[in-house]
Amino acid sequence: MNGGVECLLSEEAIDLTRGPSGLGFNIVGGRDQQHISNDTGIFVSRIKENGAAALDGRLQEGDKILSVNGEELTDMLHQDAVDLFRTAGDYVSLKVQHRLMPQNGPSSHRGDGDSGGIPLAVILVPGLAITMAVVWAFLRYRQRL
């Protein structure tokens, strides 16, 4: 891939309910305004804080939107895509493509937010025990003086 970093792609269906500020995200791209060279797709450029997309949590900046309510966005003009979103109704079904960046080392999925590092308790508990033992020994030593 031209010396670039390879990405893993995954697709997901996301249903959103239009809120007071719309669907809660901005888009870029289209046949007339390519966001990525040689790709006429429509991409999420910004997730609006407290908007429908942010509250749902699955749509991310950089995601490629493949379809809206079953209508493919392939090779669509930017303004046509904007109009499609505006007239899509209150309940909008999106098909999106996430780009997943590969990690160094063996692949493993950690959906629980675990970073894979040493848990803080493993460091704090022994450190606290050692500190308490030193304080106790110091106080016993002072009592003998």
Give descriptors for this structure.
single chain, 145 residues, 3 helices
Describe the protein.
The protein is α+β, with helices and mostly antiparallel strands and 145 residues long. Helix content is 27%, strand content 26%. It has 3 helices and 6 strands, in the order βββαββαβα. Strands 1, 2, 3, 4, 5 and 6 form a 6-stranded antiparallel β-sheet that branches. A hairpin with a 2-residue loop joins strand 4 and strand 5. The longest helix has 25 residues, at 120-144. The protein is elongated and about 85 Å long. Residues 107-113 have low confidence and may be disordered.
Question: Please, how many helices?
Answer: 3
Q: What is the string of helix and strand elements?
A: EEEHEEHEH
Report the oligomer: single chain
pLDDT averaged over residues: 82
Q: Radius of gyration in whole Å, from Cα?
A: 25 Å
Distance between the termini: 75 Å
* Unreliable runs: 107-113
Largest sheet: 6 strands, antiparallel
What is the overall silhouette?
A: elongated
Helix percent band: 25-40%
